[in-house]
Description:
A: alpha/beta; B: alpha/beta; three-stranded parallel sheet; 31 helices; 17 strands; globular
Amino acid sequence: MTEGMLFDIKRYAVHDGPGIRTTVFLQGCPLACRWCHNPESQGTVLEKGDQTDGTRPVGRRVGVEEMMAEIERDVPFYDESGGGVTFSGGEPLAQPEFLAAVLDHCGRHAIHRAVDTCGYAPRQTLLEIARRTDLFLYDLKVIDPRRHAELTGVDNEPIHANLAALCETEVSIELRMPVVPGITDTDANLRQLVALVEALPRQPPLRLLPYHRAAMDKYRRFGLRIPLPDTPEPSEDRLREIRSILTSSAVVVVP
Amino acid sequence: MNERVQRLRQKSYETPVTLSAERAKWITEFYRENIGRYSVPVMRARAFAWLCEHQTLYLGDDELIVGERGPRPKAVSTYPELTCHSADDLRILSTREKTPYLVTDADIELYEREIIPFWRGRTMRERIFQGLPDAWKDAYEAGIFTEFMEQRAPGHTTLDGKFYERGLREFQADIREALDRLDFLHDPEATAKREELEAMHIACDAVIRFAERHAELAEARAAEETRPERRKELERIAATCRQVPAYAPRTFREALQMYWFMHLGTITELNGWDAMNPGHLDRYFYPFYRRDVAAGELTEEEARELLQCFWIKFNNHPAPPKVGVTAEESGTYNDFTNINLGGILPDGSDGVNALSYMMLEVMDAIHLLQPQGNIQLSRKNPDRFLKAACRVIRKGYGYPSVFNADGVVEQMLRSGKRIEDAREGGTSGCVETGAFGKEAYILTGYLNLPKILEITLHNGLDPRTGKRIGAATGDPRALRSFDELLVAFQRQLRHFVDIKVAGNQFIEQMYAARMPAVFLSVLIDDCIRNGKDYNAGGARYNTSYIQCVGIGTITDSLSAVRTHVYDGDALSMADLLDALADDFTSDPALRARLAGETPRYGNDDDAADAIMCRVFDMLLDVIDGRPNTRGGVYHVDMLPTTCHIYFGSVLGATPDGREAGKPTSEGISPVQGADRRGPTAVVKSAAKMDQLRTGGTLLNMKFLPSVVAGEEGLTKLGQLVRTYFRMDGHHVQFNVVDAETLRDAQRHPEQYRHLIVRVAGYSDYFCDLGRALQDEIIARTAQGEGAEGE
């Protein structure tokens, strides 16, 4: 029996792909981004974290059947809105067998499938999952390799190579970049982003995700050190500027 | 909004609500002089005519649409023939903190001198209470049910489009024809019919006269007017009031004024519940609008201004003041006029037109307490229309509410209506389904479901008073299974519904015999043809509703009993009853367990929702299809107004962990805070109820502003609604506000005077609500994205 480790399921997720979706958050992530919104998903915090907050403990094992039953609960909403299921995390590609099994089931039941990934996974895994996926939400953060390693803990070369490989397949892709002031929104990073995207075999659209400080509370709750205590949320003006910088390149920004 | 509209709006908003004894004075005078001289219907009609002839008129500067029920805006009439306020009632009304009605000393004196002495022992309220049996009174006093008709007349009705094509003179021709057809030789009711028809004829004259007096007043004002523009307006008003309502309107402006006189006529004659509802105004007014615009006689701007002036007139008419339990079940200035937009035309086509959008804009711009509006959303209506409505909803006034037009039609087909009548219908008041202009669909009272469970758990005793008011359905400690408990509950339910319906039948007949609504009867098919009053079964369709309250609380309570007493072995029924009796004070941990470890309604949990469905099936079994005395039958409605506060106040602790005295759940919404799995789960739970077998259900949802932000948030809110309706949901309404704002409004009411929130089937000023109701609204789950943790 394939089992997965989840840390949350959100119904009526309205920011994780088209339509009304159910987002399944898989536990565990190879990255440790300093701005992470879901620090409890990063793996080891599970044991240390304060579990008395919600009505469910953080992290639970589910089988494919149970997972499907939960996903199918909102089929009427997917049908009406062109929605479906999104696998996020954590990093869904870190649990490839479970993910593949659930995606196969969803495919048989004609449920639209999105995978929200950081792209840090073996090439083979990524392509296996891509065959079973309708839409990739592919995160790009800091393009400079050294900075990336500093801020997330891993090398981004495989992430970029994976993205290029993914662009050779048929799957739909939406690029996503968290706009973290002083970190990802610098002119240098934006220039490098444009260069990266322009070099891809095709140019998927890009969505900007403004950093928000709401996750601060989670860090507190889980007893974690707050990693970016002074980073503000990006201003509307800066977002507009970034949009116009990107619009003058080959990058298509999703409104 | 132009300056004129701004001034009118400001005046309507700021004028304090006062009580006017003028109607009471004229009616009393007429009754005193004419007692015994006429049949009941003719007496009613002549008293109404007397009032229309003598009532002080009001014609405000700036006004384009004219006519008030009282002598000035927000001066509320009283109806002593139904309920005669005591001098103490009046003083309390005048000085109470929430929703006061200012009363002058002169009016109190007039009441003491003339009105109270005349009506003592003669009012409907007294005669009804005298005639009801003790079992009814015991249940009423225990808070098992309420009674709508003890101080307001049957109402809840909605007018259709017929009087935009024909004036009252033409209705009078119909009446004369019906009189000519009377067959005294073979029809034993011919005499009664003649009296009723003659009364209708008089009532038409009365309203025409009322309009003519406005024409005379406008002409007199015009003669004195020095500003040429206003003089022209006054002359136009005069000409309009000479045309309508005697003859059919010819222009957009005349159509608006036509409705307004019908509205005033029906709410002056009697104080029927829900004031009066105009129905599908967008479709009725549209032909006039199109024609006038095409002819170059009306611009879009002028149409908008007229609509805004028209809108403000509703706000000038707060609800007649209630007393006692009825004031508790619906303590608000709102009189529940609810305008329908969109929907399906009688031929089955899309009913949305340019005015549907314009009226949404007017609703948004004016955003006063009244009138409130809804959209009747059909699968045939464009998404653009839904989105335009969601844009207003997002502002946070709580309106428009959203109804499933196709589901509403199906409900009416199920109850035997013609398809074109069903499509011409819609919803009014809070959420009640009806065939507009053709149906008397009367709410009779709320039913306290959790209280009936409480009585069941005490074998027929009311634990609050120790009095036996229910059936002996068995010692609950001796019930061996959950099913046995449900059987006992169903017997108890039948016991109380029998008492309620028996009372209703008597009250219905009292109104039929003593308090006909002769003017309203002119406007509702087929009262003229039948020669019968609206209150006596003259309408084409005659429905009675019982509104059931607390489905969430009773579902969770039953689920808790099943989970912890019958399925678990840690808790005995005896222990549970002891814990309820002391309101969990000796075992707070048990309360937390019952609340937290029970499958609860509103989470798309099949086990909990199946209990809800079983209770709902019992309600249908016990209520649906029972005959009333007007030739129609009973149906179930699931709406609370504010009765869940009152019903909670008479209810001890419940097995779902609810503490004694706290509100019950409202409508078909989950218990406040019990829904933890997001809005789609709430919608799915609610849709498991077969709502097509009701006459309306009410679902409240509260959203954080961030979730509905942006175009996408708007689209997805619309999609949530569409999905609910695909599953045959009847209605949903939204509060888009965060709890912190509401708490701040409690602390600083002076800064939030304008804050309007959704209460039940209507919106109200948050600061006008009682504290318990404010707290209840704050406690409702605010839907963020997704499930717990947010």
